[in-house]
User: What shape does this take?
Amino acid sequence: MKKAKVGKKILDVLTPQEYAQRVGNSKERMELMAEDTAIVQNGYIYPLNRQYSKNVPGATDYGPMIRVSHPDSMDRDSEYDAKNIIDFDNVTNLKEAIEKQAELERAEKTILISPDNIFKAIVQEKDTPEMKLLKEAINRKHIDLDTYKQRFGSDFNNDKRLFDQPSITFFKLKRIADVMDIRIDLTLSDKPGAVNPIGEKLSAQITTTESDDEGEK
Assistant: This one.
């Protein structure tokens, strides 16, 4: 597995031969791979583009051939340089694997903390308390939600539409919080005058953040 940050995406990087083997003759697979795949050739990374443009660096699949559009300046040259590839294929020990994973996470963070289009979830009166709280938390992060697309995976568009709804299931709340690095703590306690009371507050951490993981090591 080879990965590289190009623009605002972390891409899977394949040789032309590897790409041809994976895509075969499937137009549907070609469309899916165009979202997060790049071709490495002659020392450059070319993100797959659905349509060719001489002004947009990348590779366009024409079936029997792949046409590339080369970066046109020194700045863009460095961004598309094959030296930026994080190669997990040649890992020989656990230390290297951890270092490369950390390098990949650092690359991802540079995307997530540099928003161009800040997402704003609209809080409405009819929203449930948990939905209001989630929307407020997301709004305070001041993020471009689209930069989290690869974290969400193939269901991103449906997950994004959840912010237009007045309520959310506990499963979806937990999933979104995990993706967005939000910790959820749940507390159970007695209502006033409860029959057969619990007698105390019971709490549990529902989602785990990166810092929590590091603290446990």
